[in-house]
Amino acid sequence: MKAVCVYCGSxxxxxxxxxxxxxxxxxxxVAANLSLVYGGGKVGLMGVIADEVMAAGGRAIxxxxxxxxxxxxxxxxxxxxHVVPDMHHRKKMMANLSDAFVALPGGAGTLEELFEVYTxxxxxxxHKAVAVLNIDGFYDxxxxxLGHTVQEGFMRQAYFDILQIDTDPAALIAKLQRYQPPVAxxxxxxxxxx
Length: 194
Known about the structure:
Layout: E1 3-7, H1 16-31, E2 35-38, H2 44-55, E3 60-65, H3 66-70, E4 80-84, H4 87-97, E5 100-103, H5 108-123, E6 129-133, H6 140-151, H7 157-160, E7 163-166, H8 169-178
Parallel strand pairs: 1-2, 1-5, 2-3, 3-4, 5-6, 6-7
């Protein structure tokens, strides 16, 4: 594993501990010799984690759509900043550059990106780890909802188990590094890989 894609808020959130967690995760990436791949913004938790990675001597790769560059939220102090035409290109490039995916606290955009790669993993479009850093119980309601989908017969337990969950940055990175994907299903050879 060389690079981890991080999805997180373009806001800081209501609690200072979200910023602290983003900084800690950035430092943990650098300590594990892993590059950060993220949405390329300089604001919110996105900017916090990128700044921390760069300050710790790591590598931060941003991928941002032209629209957001025009709104002047692009980070100009990264190892690399890729400007792409739209969100579809952004998400595809981020996925291609990454060996695992982690969601920190965030809003609808963070959840949408998390669920896209989580669904791709369930369908076998990729076999990369998908995870959440569950800071101060932020993702507890989501984890409960996913458990409910299993109980109600809408998702298999094996698919629930794809999602790696931890509250500690270094422990979560260790889980990503140990992750063994489920056995490929019979349709895997028919799909284009991410």
